[in-house]
Amino acid sequence: MKDNSAVVIIGSGAGGGTLANELCQKGIKVILLEAGKHHTIADFVNDEWPSFSQLAWLDKRTTSGDWRVAKDFPNLPAWICKTVGGTTTHWAGASLRIQDHEFRAETHYGNIDDANLIDWPLTLKDLEPYYAKAEDKMGVTRTNGIPGLPGNNNFKVMHAGAKKLGYKEVHTGRMAINSRPRKGRAACQQLGFCFQGCKTGAKWSTLYTEIPAAEATGNIELRSESHVLQVKHDADGKVSGILYSDKDGNQHLQKARIVCVAGNSIESPRLLLNSASSMYPDGLANSSGQVGRNYMRHTTGSVYATFEKPVKMYRGTTMAGIIADENIHDTSRGFAGGYELETLSLGLPFMAAFLDPGASGKKFSDALEDYDHMAGMWIVGEDMPQEKNRVTLHATEKDQHGQPVPNVHFDDHKNDIAMRNHAYKQGTMVYEAAGAKTVWETPPYPSTHNLGTNRMSTKTADGVCNGFGQTHDIKNLFISDGSQFTTGAAENPTLTIVTLAIRQADYIAEQMGKKNI
Amino acid sequence: MKNKHINRREFLCNSGKTLAGAVVASSGAVSLVFPTTGWSAQLAVLNEHESKTLLRMTREMFPHDKIEDKFYAVVVEALDADAKASAESATQLKEGIANLDKLAKGDWQALAADKRGTVLKQIDTTAFFNQIKSKCVTGIYNNKDLWDHFGYEGSSAEHGGYINRGFDDLDWLPNPPESDSPKAH
Ligand SMILES: Cc1cc2nc3c(=O)[nH]c(=O)nc-3n(C[C@H](O)[C@H](O)[C@H](O)COP(=O)(O)OP(=O)(O)OC[C@H]3O[C@@H](n4cnc5c(N)ncnc54)[C@H](O)[C@@H]3O)c2cc1C
Ligand code: SF4
User: Fold this and answer.
1) Across residues B3-17, what is the average pLDDT?
2) Which of A280, A334, A360, A424 is paired with A19 by a 20 to 30 Å CA distance?
3) With an 8 Å Cβ cutoff, is A430 touching chain B?
4) pLDDT, tens digit, for every residue of B90-141?
5) B29 is a domain residue
6) How confident is the model at residue A2 (pLDDT cuts 50, 70, 90)?
7) In terms of Cα–Cα distance, which of A315, A50, A95, A128 is closest to A203?
8) Of the ligands numbered here, which is closest to the C-alpha atom of A229?
9) Which of B130, B160, B180 sits opposite A159 (nearest CB)?
10) Quick one: CA dihedral A463, A466, A470, A475, positive or negative?
């Protein structure tokens, strides 16, 4: 595929991997470029730091802003993967639909100071048929007649406390993890290492679902260890191909009919900015100036508690447990938007690194001494898009390819802080109701949900792409990952990323058919 | 060879259950020796006083009464390896320890426990302190030999996960109804 007939997709994670398969199924030729290595399930290790070194994106990044991550992990703003399958290797599988009112955040939340809120250029109704396809593809529990997962010890604690508090919607979640064998994937064996790559394949990942399915069509060429450096354009301003570096550092030009960027919300805007040319001095698709802006990471935080009796929270599915009652828009709580509380556990090595980064002393040691008596939950809520929260190119620091590294700037919005404090309080009450001895309010980890840096908008001045991820400025350039998100909503984002990719594939095929692109 | 064994009580802090072990110096070279466990390590850069100070510091920063000194010595060994690999790191450690003694107006280790803590507090934002802290976080909690102590079971794939090994064995709270937590299939 040396000619310019193929669709070139950059990144093989939730967005890129799914889009590749969907296009291949329609008979469209795809070249999928992935910066990371091609691992198999057999390579995965049930060991936190080695798994992190194996799969995480470790190229240099810098941070700024008042978020605590910038202080605790100045070169690790995000926990994202660099491997075939992208972050769907490390993800936990929680798969929730965004709610109708969240797609229309500006309409529902009104004018919030310093928030760059707009409505999505699409509605829940537009997405419903695609959500259904995504849930079926991924095998989401509590949809398509798939039973929920059995609750583990960590869930039992959450459930007992939540019910005492009067919460109603408390269950083992909607998870893209097989509760029984389905579509060639095994059932969950409750290993407890969902964040390290699922060794049974029970958890959906593009690595062993979408990508092999695409390969079976014969329409795809997957090039791993191929880091895309720039997207190129022709004299008409349309994109014409990409420049990438292979594993030996040799650079290649690959022509393309269409380019789809799916490198996750830090690398995608970085790539567009790094592709600046005399025609597009501010980077590609950036006439709005919004490329890299409105970076969102969800309002997060964790609550851990220790109990008199053992919990062993690390046993079993990491995130199969949810309290959904707070995921409403009710400003009487002091903030706009909602949040979920989801079970979460870290192994001892990560717990030591993340429970209270930078802490030492007896209180901290005592908490870890009680590690097997601990329960944990994660807060995931809507954060406000802010123009100043953005990915920019570093003025001096360069990566191994000689390209400017990305800087990720994030300041908490006061709505984020109010929500986090509310969630800390509720989470604490849940555990106290279950009999907690001590409770820890753990600050946010490096961002696992990275969103919004090439957002969809109705007006071209407000964002980077339209409701199909097609950039406003360049019609054969698409955004195919979470950076399209107009607002963050409260739900874990991947189901929506997959849903948008399925819908985008239909749109691309249609536009190609009409010879519009 | 004439080894100068240091009385282990000199560097144990509040600990009754540690196994015998020592910082051993002989003709300039310093070793960490724990005879009953068969573990020992030769240090390249740190001298006797420095190793003993670090051994005590690591325990005071992350006190676990039931964990034996050998495991803190592993952290000291790792710090020594850093010092060997980087002159900058060596200087930071040596100067940090000298500064600690300066603040203690003598040997920091010789202070009473509460005084040692007060002095540590004075330096707890320094790069030196952070260097030791990050080494402890991985050196102690990412040490597989200690996981059992903390009740962490580590890798489970080779044991078939926990599906039949107690993923839901917690019995001191009511079981959630099947609508919220279905039976395993
Ligand atoms: C520990 C953890 C738990 C999570 N749990 C959940 C959950 O329960 N539910 C949920 O919804 N989400 C979860 N997530 C988030 C989820 O993984 C991401 O939202 C999702 O994978 C993002 O998809 P993406 O396509 O935007 O990017 P990714 O999946 O990150 O894929 C991007 C890919 O692009 C590649 N790439 C980047 N730049 C280049 C380049 N220049 N050239 C070539 N390749 C490039 C990267 O190497 C990567 O493989 C979790 C994430 C983590 C880390
Ligand atoms: S708990 Fe289930 S989903 Fe998680 S890693 Fe194990 S088998 Fe996979």
Assistant:
1) 36
2) A280
3) no
4) 999 999 999 999 999 999 999 999 999 999 999 999 999 999 999 999 999 9
5) no
6) low
7) A95
8) 1
9) B180
10) negative
For residue A56, which of A315, A350, A271, A293 has the smallest C-alpha distance? A350
> Can you tell me which residue has the tokens 């965004």?
A98
CA distance linking residue B36 with residue B38, whole number of Å: 6
Please tell me the residue having the least CA distance from ligand 2 atom 6.
Answer: A191
Position B167 in a domain: no
Q: Are the C-beta atoms of B20 and B35 separated by less than 8 Å?
A: yes
Tokens 């009487």 correspond to: A332
Look at residue B4 and tell me whether its pLDDT is greater than 70.
no
Q: Any idea what the Cα angle at residue A516 is, between residues A10 and A263, rounded to 5°?
A: 10
Cα–Cα dist A413/A272, whole Å: 26
User: CA-CA distance, B99 to B127, in Å (whole number)?
Assistant: 12
For chain B, how many structural domains are there in total?
1
Q: Nearest to residue B142, comparing CAs of B56, B66, B71?
A: B71
Contact A369 B150 (CB under 8 A): yes
The confidence score (pLDDT) of residue B12 equals: 38
Query: Are the C-beta atoms of A368 and B152 separated by less than 8 Å?
Result: no
Summary mean pLDDT of chain B:
87
| Cα separation, A260 vs B69, whole angstroms | 56
Q: To the nearest 5 percent, what fractions of chain A are helix, strand and coil?
A: 30, 20, 50
- Tell me the CA distances in angstroms from A288 to A396, A469, B38, one per residue in order: 25, 15, 67
The pLDDT value given to residue B26: 74
Q: B147–A348: do the CB atoms touch at under 8 Å?
A: yes
In a 10 Å sphere around its CB, with 0-12 CB exposed, 13-18 middle and 19+ buried, how is residue A18 labelled? Answer: buried
Q: Are the C-beta atoms of residues A164 and A11 closer than 8 Å to each other?
A: no
A172 to B181: CB separation less than 8 angstroms, yes or no = yes
Report long-range pairs for A391-397 (Cβ below 8 Å, ≥24 apart).
A391/A265, A391/A266, A391/A269, A391/A270, A391/A273, A391/A292, A391/A295, A391/A453, A392/A273, A392/A292, A393/A270, A393/A273, A393/A274, A394/A62, A397/A60, A397/A62
The three-state DSSP-derived secondary structure of A23-45 is HHHCCCCEEEECCCECCCHHHCC
Is there a contact between A190 and B167 if contact means CB atoms under 8 Å apart?
yes
Give kind and range of the element (H or E) at residue A414: helix A414-433
What ipTM is given for this predicted complex? Answer: 0.93
> Could you give the CA distance from residue A417 to residue A300 in angstroms, rounded to a whole number?
10
Let me know if residue B153 belongs to a domain.
Answer: no
Exposed, middle or buried: residue A325 (CB in 10 Å: 0-12, 13-18, 19+)?
middle
- Tell me the C-alpha distance between B185 and B183, whole Å: 6
The chain B residue lying nearest A354, using CA atoms, is B137
Q: Which of A225, A224, A264, A210 is nearest to A20 (CA)?
A: A210
Let me know if residue B7 belongs to a domain: no
CA A153/CA A469 separation, integer angstroms? 41
**Which chain B residue has its CA at the smallest distance from A180's CA?**
B185
Q: A42: nearest CA in chain B?
A: B157
> How far apart are alpha carbons A406 and A472 in whole angstroms?
23
* Angle separating helix axes B48-61 and B87-103, nearest 10 degrees: 80
* Residue of A72, A164, A191, A306 best to disrupt the B interface, most CBs of B under 10 A: A191
Which range marks the domain in which residue B84 is found? 48-145
| B129 token code pair | 């302190």
Q: Give me A99's structure tokens.
A: 């709610």
